[in-house]
Amino acid sequence: MSVTRAARWGRVAADPMAIHLRWMIRRDMPDIMGIELASFEYSWTEDDFLRCLRQRNCIGMVAERNETILGFMVYELHPTRLNLLNFAVHPEQRRTGIGRRLVRKLVYKMCSHRRQKVTLAVREGNTAAQLFFRAARFSAAKVLRGYYEDSGEDAYQMEYLPVAHDWEEFGGGGAPTNRIAMYEAR
Ligand SMILES: CC(C)(COP(=O)(O)OP(=O)(O)OC[C@H]1O[C@@H](n2cnc3c(N)ncnc32)[C@H](O)[C@@H]1OP(=O)(O)O)[C@@H](O)C(=O)NCCC(=O)NCCS
Questions:
Q1: Ligand 1 centroid to residue 95 C-alpha, Å
Q2: pLDDT digits 0-9 by tens, 54-66
Q3: Residues framing ligand 1 (Cβ under 6 A)
Q4: Of 15, 44, 106, 117, which is least surrounded by CB within 10 A?
C-alpha cells in the first residue's frame, strides 16, 4: 500500500523518535522532579508544582518520546501575555531541539489565546538559558534587581513578541487588536 493510502487509513506506525507534547498530569511528577533536581541549584519542590498547577491560570506541559518525559514547562495565562514560570530539558537530552519545540508550542499558545507576548525571568548567572532564549528570538527587556529570594540574585526579564510569520502560522486572523484602545480613540 502506498504511504499516502496507508496514512489515510491510519496504518502507518507512529515515528518512535517523534517528540510528543501533552498536558502535565499528576503521574508525571516523579519524572519531572528528576529533571527539575538535575537542572536547578534552587529547584522547585513537588509541592511548588502542585500549588502552582492548582491555580486556574497555570498550565503545565511535558515533552515525551516513547512515554519517557524529556522536558517540561509551566506557564501562566495573563490577560495580555503568557508568563513562563519553569522550563527544563533532561540534561542528557539537551541540544537536540526539545527546548525549541516547547518554545514553539508556547508561541502557538500565545497566538491562539490572542496574547501579545511571552515573558520570563532568567537568573543573571544562567548564561545557557539566556543564550537559548536569545536563539529562540526572545530579547532582554529589563533587569529585575534581587529578584530571587533564595540567592538574592538579579534576573533578566526576557520577552518574545510575535512576528507576522507567527500569526500566519498559528494565529489565523492576524495580530490581535486592542478593542478598548480603538473605542477610546474615537
Ligand atoms: C535552557 C534549556 C531548556 C534549553 O533546552 P534544549 O532542549 O537543550 O535547547 P535546544 O536543543 O532546543 O536548543 C535550541 C538552540 O538554543 C541555543 N542553545 C541551547 N542551549 C544552549 C547553550 N547551553 N549554550 C548556547 N546556546 C544554546 C542553540 O542555538 C540551540 O541550537 P543548536 O543546538 O542547533 O545550536 C536547557 O539547557 C535546560 O534545561 N537548562 C536548565 C534549566 C534552565 O536553565 N531552564 C531555564 C530557566 S529560565
A1: 6
A2: 999 999 999 999 9
A3: 39, 87-89, 94-100, 120, 122, 126, 128-129, 131-132, 135
A4: 15
The long-range contacts involving 28-34, CB below 8 angstroms and separated by at least 24 positions, are 28/62, 28/69, 28/72, 31/62, 31/68, 31/69, 32/62, 32/69, 32/72, 34/90
183 pLDDT exceeds 50?
Answer: no
Closest residue (by CA) to atom 4 of ligand 1?
Answer: 99
Structural domains in the chain?
15-185 (3.40.630.30)
* Average pLDDT score over the chain: 88
Which ligand 1 atom is the nearest neighbour of the CA of 120?
48
